[in-house]
Amino acid sequence: MSIQARKERERAERERRIITTARELAEAEGWDAVTTRRLAAEIEYSQPVLYSHFKGLDAIMAVVAVEGFAELAQLLHEARVGATTPEQAVERVGRAYSDFADAHPALYEAMFIRAVDLPFATPQAPEALQAGYGELREAMSPLAGDDNVDVLTETFWGGLHGMVTLQRSRRLNPSTYGACIDLLIKRFIG
Amino acid sequence: MSIQARKERERAERERRIITTARELAEAEGWDAVTTRRLAAEIEYSQPVLYSHFKGLDAIMAVVAVEGFAELAQLLHEARVGATTPEQAVERVGRAYSDFADAHPALYEAMFIRAVDLPFATPQAPEALQAGYGELREAMSPLAGDDNVDVLTETFWGGLHGMVTLQRSRRLNPSTYGACIDLLIKRFIG
DNA sequence: ACTGAAATTCTAGCACCGCTAGCGCATCTG
DNA sequence: CAGATGCGCTAGCGGTGCTAGAATTTCAGT
Asked: Which keywords accompany this UniProt record (chains A, B) (predicted)?
């Protein structure tokens, strides 16, 4: 059975290489540069090999997205537990979200702009995604008051997402972006 | 000069037909269905004709987007002037924006998600776009208080845009979407 | 150790994309 | 009526995601 174990291990390694190569390529040159031919050349296999691991290019992007969900969830968690007041928690979480989007634009794109075939607001959603949402929710919860916590969480998330996407597509005045994030947070703390 | 006038008129009509066909096709089947071959077939000319009118497919989408800016600006204006209080103005404008996005998803996509080659937060931006922003700004202005009006306007816009885009890509719980819009507006009125 | 079977990887190709060079025809000018 | 001009066409380039089927490698049974 050792020989089969080796093959499985090598196959898993190749799959990892596909994913990390896709992510690196996307972060370096954007998702448009991540083509099946390019990816295949990069891992030094032929195109059809990709399809023995994934259903298609979208599925590869989805796996990268899930990786991103995990990293974001971790960052949001650290931001939240590092706060001393509920208000500070919201502020830190909001800033962590915005910073993450700025630091990893391609990753953010896979997570929240492209890759529609992932389930989102359901129990079938990836665990890491639910964890990230949970961090946001946990931060908002003490400040909900009469408002429904999920509505509040989704709205705050929507606000952050909107700022992030308008900023990244150069639709906002760049010089006021920071002030906008500040104001958004203020409106959800008050 | 009458013969040349006729030719110019016919050429302008053909250009209009390209634009309206692109928009109709996009609204009916999404922008992915708007290909040069499809568009050419629809207007009953060959592909290269498109390039005698526009630099490329992106330019066609940009023209559709500008059309959308004008329509949105008109809707926002009507919403704003139909209000009796500053708070109601913000509420009506916010709802008009969200309703517009829901009613014309492909148009909204061209305006605020794709088509990056249009100038946005500068004086070179299309007039209709500036007009739309102006309506938003006018609505927010009375409620700015100590906050910078442009920062407030961009932030409110960002919030709306975020809700709209997360909703359209099915990343939100559909049953709470309305409540989220309500809450967002409330947070910017209070 | 050798041969047939099974699994794996490759080459080659499909149908499509945006875009363009350059030919042929229709129209206008002298 | 001949030549020049401009317009729309056919055909093609290099690219895309994806796949059928050949070829190679690896395994299993005698």
From this structure: DNA-binding, Transcription, Transcription regulation
